[in-house]
Known about the structure:
The protein is mainly alpha-helical. It is 60% helix and 6% strand. The protein is built from 14 helices and 6 strands. It has a two-stranded antiparallel ribbon. Strand 1 (162-165) and strand 2 form a beta hairpin. The longest helix is centred in the middle third of the chain and has 30 residues, at 101-130. The protein is globular, with a radius of gyration of 20 Å. The two termini are 20 Å apart. The model is unreliable at 1-6, 221-269, 275-299 and 314-318 (pLDDT under 50).
Amino acid sequence: MRPRQRGSHLGLMLLASQLFQMGLDNIPPVTLAVLGLNVYLFLFPAAPLMQACVSVQQAYWQGGWRRLLLSPLHHVDDWHLYFNMASFLWKGTNLERRLGGPWFLYLLCVFSLLTGGVYLLLEAALTELTQDQSYSTACAVGFSGVLFALKVLSNHYHPGAVTHVMGLPVSNRYVSWVELVLIHMMSPGTSLIGHLAGILVGLLYTLGPLKAVMKKCAGFVTSSGYDSRPSAYYNSSGSTGYRQNHPPDYAPPHTASYSSGLTEEEQLEAAIRNSLNDGGQSSQRGAPPPYGLHLSGEAGVEEIRLRRLRRFDSNSRQ
């Protein structure tokens, strides 16, 4: 793959505009730091694009395992960077507030490495099944696979919600699969296997053993459950607080008014309802992005990503 000309860095300017509209103080530190790292490595790459992308040939056959670290953090052009980081801005902010900064950072590291690893396994399996060596040489780069994993996790916390994709309502249980197909149909040059790898990693965490393995590796699990060391979290206003004796997936309630006299299950249901209500209010508070299109939070970012991919694909065919 060959990087496009970066031109006037319009994507970077739009990203900066969106950051300031949201307000840097409203972005949790891990999300802001990871976003800043991606921008920095776009401007000052750690390696040329063809030496940062990951493939079976380069990583497994030639031992270039460092590509698993580099590939999620490098992007083809400023538009590739913009749409990935705009999507990450919403997902990262919501998930970091829910999980806490330390666990979210840990999650990003694991998801980034595992997405690349699963991508290699899928490409190697396709090579073996089809006897087509092109699968082993296909080189992928970008944060999209990690975004798909985060999307599966975000949707897992709101299973009854509905996301509009290209104007059609889709249950959160299936929206990742619908977007996977649509992106590949509208822009065949994108890495279908890379996005699929992200979905599988997200499912390994939400439905598989990955979360339990991560807890054990991090030392969070003790004989009595979770350790008593406080960890920081960020509430909906962006201010910090502390929690104790809660698992990493615990969502701190915004008020305690519904906790008194309720069972644990009733409190959990009330917290979920409160979280869904806050999600809607957050998207209303955010200013519209700078292109004259009204986006409603994360769903809007995904919608414009799909439109952008379709537009670039149609231009490439002309």
